[in-house]
Write a structure and sequence with these properties.
The protein has strands at 2-6, 11-21, 28-48, 62-84, 89-112, 115-118, 123-142, 145-162, 167-177. By secondary structure, the chain is mostly beta strands. Strands 1, 2, 3, 4, 5, 6, 7, 8 and 9 form a 9-stranded antiparallel beta sheet that branches.
């Protein structure tokens, strides 16, 4: 088990690895669990002036104040199993599942006269992604030849929400590769 954290910089990572060797034949099981949390806040002020080719200012100065917090959470679990057979054959199988949640706020205020008003560049976006995959692979070694056959299936689910204009998208993808 390993973990790293730095609360001042806003991140945490944790990892758990397990490996079991069943016997001397090479049968083996591995399991990995991972978690990553990243949080960051950026506050900024942006002053913009436009000049002509003579160096004279054109129009009013644009002053933006930005508050940009971001939170990202990543979870994953993975497991693999290897089972050798006699005469050079081996089967491998496993799965992986991951989930990502991303929450980003871009909050800009524009100075208008003496008041700060919400600027049209502001946005709030929340994104979720879940990927699940399984595979099986068969290998056979015969003298100088090697044969391999396998199948992998993957399912991806994504969802995005643009809070600012209440717009949502969803997507589901399924893939199989042999």
């Amino acid at each position: 088990f390993r973990y790293m954290k730095n609360l001042d910089d806003g991140y945490f990572t944790g990892n758990f690895n397990y490996k079991h060797i069943f016997d001397t034949s090479g049968r083996e099981l591995t399991v990995d669990l991972d978690y990553v949390k990243y949080s960051n806040v950026s506050d900024m002020t942006l002053n913009t002036d436009v000049y002509d080719n003579q160096g004279n200012t054109q129009g009013d100065e644009l002053v933006l104040s930005g508050h940009l917090p971001a939170d990202i959470n990543i979870y994953s679990v993975k497991s693999d199993y290897t089972h050798p057979f006699n005469k050079g054959a081996k089967i491998e199988a496993g799965f992986k599942s991951s989930y990502v949640k991303n929450d980003n706020l871009v909050d800009y205020k524009r100075l208008a006269s003496q008041d700060w008003i919400t600027d049209g560049r502001s946005n709030h976006f929340i994104y979720d992604e879940n990927v699940n995959a399984v595979y099986v692979n068969l290998n056979k070694q015969m003298k100088k030849w090697s044969f391999q056959a396998g199948l992998r299936m993957e399912n991806t689910n994504t969802r995005g929400l643009q809070v600012t204009n209440d717009s949502t998208f969803r997507r589901q993808d399924r893939k199989s590769v042999a």
